[in-house]
Design brief:
Length: 144
């Protein structure tokens, strides 16, 4: 129950595309109006196959803490070499690609964050505006 993005790219494009993946994930959380933070993992916390990695965490009012909903990584050529993934460039040279991945949304976790961050004092839950056209309603109310 996750939405994932995978990119296979030229080595010279991987850092730019990593930034794009990060912007995409941040934009989704902004549109959902959920408080979040970005944690760039330090090299000591990275797996051997990761060159760069970040987690996006959303605020969880019930736990009074942040929880991870997005994780993205630039694996450079590590995965491509292990899997022998190559391309042929314009000069007909074989090149190993770079791989990037992004868990854009862990769907069950983001649903909890939407509910928790939008619950009102009366127990109702306001639906983020960006979702109105999909839900057909703007609020969830309990039975009286």
């Amino acid at each position: 129950n996750k939405v994932e993005q995978f990119i296979f790219c030229k080595p010279e494009d991987s850092e730019k595309l990593y930034d794009e993946l990060l912007r995409n994930s941040e934009e989704i959380l902004k549109m959902l109006e959920i408080p979040y933070r970005v944690l760039q993992l330090c090299t000591g916390d990275l797996a051997d196959w990761k060159y760069q990695s970040a987690d996006l965490e959303v605020w969880r009012p019930t736990t009074k803490n942040y929880g991870e909903v997005v994780s993205l990584s630039n694996c450079t050529d590590y995965q491509a070499r292990k899997l022998n993934i190559k391309c042929i460039d314009k000069k007909q040279n074989r090149r190993v690609l770079h791989t990037l991945n992004d868990t854009v949304l862990a769907t069950s976790r983001i649903m909890v964050a939407i509910l928790e961050n939008n619950q009102q004092k009366d127990g109702s839950i306001k639906i983020p505006k960006v979702l109105w056209k999909y839900t057909g309603f703007r609020e969830i109310r309990g039975k009286k």
